[in-house]
């Protein structure tokens, strides 16, 4: 079964930049869309940015112009470059991958996987 691991979170000051990474482990699946979500304390989990296998991207309004999502299909990895960070960007950032299993015990089944999250804190 696929496992997603995020890294790169931390504490930064407003206006600074930070990069997040997400890597999916395993070889029995194919990933279609990968998405970054975030969840601030006491709020619902919201989509930040997504990217398809062919590189088509979609951003939340709050991320447009400041965040850049990218992906390395060969490494089953996704990245989020966050510039001009604001205190309201403070949240746990989660990686999500959608796709299907092409072999192994789950062959033929859809894949819907989440990472455990990485905390981003932006101080004012």
Tell me what you see in this structure:
The chain has 124 residues and is mostly beta strands. Helices cover 0% and strands 57% of the residues. The protein contains no helices and eleven strands. A hairpin with a 4-residue loop joins strand 7 (67-72) and strand 8 (77-82).
Quick synopsis:
The chain has 124 residues and is mostly beta strands. Helix content is 0%, strand content 57%. Strands 2, 4, 5, 6, 9, 10 and 11 form a seven-stranded mixed β-sheet that branches.
Descriptors:
single chain, 124 residues, mainly beta, 7-stranded mixed β-sheet, 4-stranded antiparallel β-sheet, 57% strand, elongated
Question: Strand percentage, roughly?
Answer: over 45%
- Output the number of helix runs: 0
Distance between the termini: 40 Å
What is the helical fraction, as a range of percent? under 10%
Content-based structural category: mainly beta
How much is the radius of gyration in Å?
A: 15 Å
Low-confidence stretches: none
Shape: elongated
What is the β-strand count?
11
Average pLDDT rating: 95
| N-to-C series of helices and strands | EEEEEEEEEEE
Q: Characterize the largest beta sheet: strand count, sense, and whether it forms a barrel.
A: 7 strands, mixed
């Amino acid at each position: 079964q696929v496992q997603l691991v995020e890294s790169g979170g931390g504490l930064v000051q407003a206006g600074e930049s930070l990069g997040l990474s997400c890597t999916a482990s395993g070889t029995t699946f194919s990933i279609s869309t990968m998405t970054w979500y975030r969840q601030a304390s006491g709020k619902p989990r919201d989509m930040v940015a997504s990217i398809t296998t062919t590189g088509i991207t979609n951003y939340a309004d709050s991320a447009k112009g400041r965040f850049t999502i990218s992906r390395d299909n060969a490494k089953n990895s996704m990245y989020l470059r966050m510039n001009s960070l604001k205190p309201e960007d403070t949240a746990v950032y989660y990686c999500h991958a959608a796709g299907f299993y092409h072999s192994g015990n789950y062959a033929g089944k859809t894949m819907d996987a989440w990472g455990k999250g990485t905390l981003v804190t932006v101080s004012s």
